[in-house]
Amino acid sequence: MAETLSPGELLRVLRDPTRTEQRSLLFGAPSVAVDLTAALPPGAAGATGWDALSELPCVSIGVAETGVAPPAPALAAAVDLVVASAEERALVEQRIAASPLASLLLVQLLRRSLLRGVAEGLLAESLAYSTLQAGPEFAAFRARYSPRECESSDEPPLLVRRDGDALHMRLNRPEKRNAFSAALRDALCEALALVLADESVTRVLLSGAGPSFCSGGDLDEFGTLPDPATAHAIRSTRNAALLLARCAPRVEAHVHGACVGAGAELPAFCRRVIAAPDAFFQLPEVGLGLVPGAGGTVSLPRRIGRQRTAWLALTGRPLSAEDARAFGLVDEIRAGRACY
Fold first, then answer.
1. What are the residues facing 332 on neighbouring strands?
2. Are both 68 and 141 inside the same structural domain?
3. pTM score above 0.70
């Protein structure tokens, strides 16, 4: 494990004009840890003393294995995430060490997420995602991954049905656990544009066919576009997350099974998320050398806060339906699935 600083030691780092040189992944410091249970130095109780944490080009980890001692909550609110055990900390530091560039861009996005509007936040996320697609960590993942052959389906990737004032949308790639492909994205954008254009649609039910709601981005399509700049232009043109956010007050997501990557990020925009007991939620992107790219750095902080979002992404741990409800990611757990 990396050295753990006391609050006083951290404050001295933050007051140093060379702090970004001292604590940078470029110079072997991908993270900095601070003991949230240690006594604070005089005059450091307020939040302003910790503002410079957001400037550090590394991940800041608050360690609170025995709880946060007053008045440390101000410092606890400033770090990128808080870990409650040595096991959690070891897992986070291991993930950061394996993907330091993706980890840094993740927390840099999250530090400003709630200060940006939704559209601005999605633009920043796409630019960060595109940058990482051209980086060494994603290249290493691509070198390890062998695309799988899958029989093409004649079924549409999204099923849409009108029922009075309600519109039912069902992700329909059950053979790939509804992996979020370009074709599924395009179909979802088309359906959401219809909702925005038709105010008589007062309720939208979003669900998934097969054993899972959505297993995340289709890995077989990762890195297949000509270049990251073109990929960003496509995301700026066909952005399902932005359209979903605009009609979110009318949308209810019914999720089950794997809700991974996009399968967790997109429902987080919705007014209400109803999960089956078998649902689980996971953000694996940092392990691929990327950040969440389906709107998760915008939707999740607005639902569960930036620190819990960072915890999900930097641990890579799955959350059960019950834990997701405790986090605020799920509003209700209900047996059965939404009818299409």
1. 274
2. no
3. yes
